[in-house]
Amino acid sequence: MTETNIVRGALCSILAAFLFALMGAGVKYSSQFVSSETVVFLRNAFGLLFLLPWLHNAGLNTLKTQRFGAHLIRTATGLTAMYCFFYAIAHLRLGEAVLFNFSSPLFIAVIAMLWLREPTSKYVIGAIVVGFIGVLLILKPGISPLSVASFAGIAAGIFVAIAMVSIRNLSSTEPTVRIVFYFSFLSTIISSIPMIWSWEMPSLKVWGVMLGAGFIATKAQLLMTYAYRLAPAAKIGAFAYMNVIFAASFGWLFWSETFDSVSIIGAFLICVSGLMTTIKKKAEVS
Predict the structure, then answer these.
(1) Are 138 and 248 within 8 A, CB to CB?
(2) How far apart are CA 169 and CA 115, in angstroms?
(3) Which one, of 205, 122, 107, 207, lies nearest residue 157 by Cα?
(4) Distance of alpha carbon 32 from alpha carbon 35, whole angstroms
(5) How would you write the pLDDT of the chain (286 residues) with one tens digit per residue?
(6) Fewer CB in 10 Å around end: N or C, the chain?
């Protein structure tokens, strides 16, 4: 592995983090005018739209699978995470919602231990404890009232973790592109159902923002995948957490959102914990 690849991987990771945060800002903007159900459907539909050129080039044979049930489980958990995450984005500070979503590595270690019977070291357990302390510092139970949006943000992190473990389970037989396509396709179909009774006609501006969000999210996912192809997570994993910094910056710039000092400490602990668990897992694999 060359230094050039590490630098390129880091730059791709930073750009992906910026695009993910920009997508979150687009979701927050759109949520001011239409329901969360509408936003989720548009995000999935436009994301699927940008995958169609790949499907055309790869051919329908690429979609053949013996594990449709496992794809359904991955879709159910990932889509639930998206509903919770988008609800949190609409009702919390953007940086806070993204931060709760990034608490998923804390839950991944626990879920992988219970579901896949993966061993968990004392190091990882310590990192999980640090992360949960960070969550408590942001929630401030007993001092600040706990909102539905806060619970939705934490639920998003939990369901993201379940989805990630299900992807790990699927990846033993399924290529990445097939997993991504089935998630996009099934999520679009399923999210169209609640949209029937909650549909609100978006303005042209919202249509444009959500079209951009779908494109940006697809591009960010490809960039992140490419980044980890160039360099291991131990080298560039920290840059993914710049998503939180970018999101907080967008929240401050567009909605005048700020964090108190206790929440900043909590955010720092969650990021440190996430990095500890992620890098440790990657080191164990390699």
Answers:
(1) no
(2) 10
(3) 107
(4) 8
(5) 566 677 787 888 889 889 989 999 999 999 999 988 999 999 999 888 888 887 777 666 777 888 888 889 989 998 999 999 999 999 999 988 988 887 776 776 677 677 666 666 777 778 778 877 887 887 776 555 668 888 898 899 888 888 877 877 787 788 777 888 888 899 999 999 988 888 888 899 999 999 999 888 878 877 876 776 676 655 666 677 788 888 988 999 999 888 788 888 888 887 777 777 665 554 444 4
(6) C
141 phi and psi angles, rounded to 5 deg = -60, 135
Helix axes 94-101, 261-285, angle to 10 degrees: 30
At 155, the amino acid letter reads A
For residue 232, give the 3-state DSSP assignment: coil
The whole-angstrom separation of Cα 120 and Cα 110 is 8
CA distance 24 to 93: 11
Dihedral sign (CA 169, 175, 181, 186): negative
Phi, psi for 144 (deg, rounded to 5): -110, 145
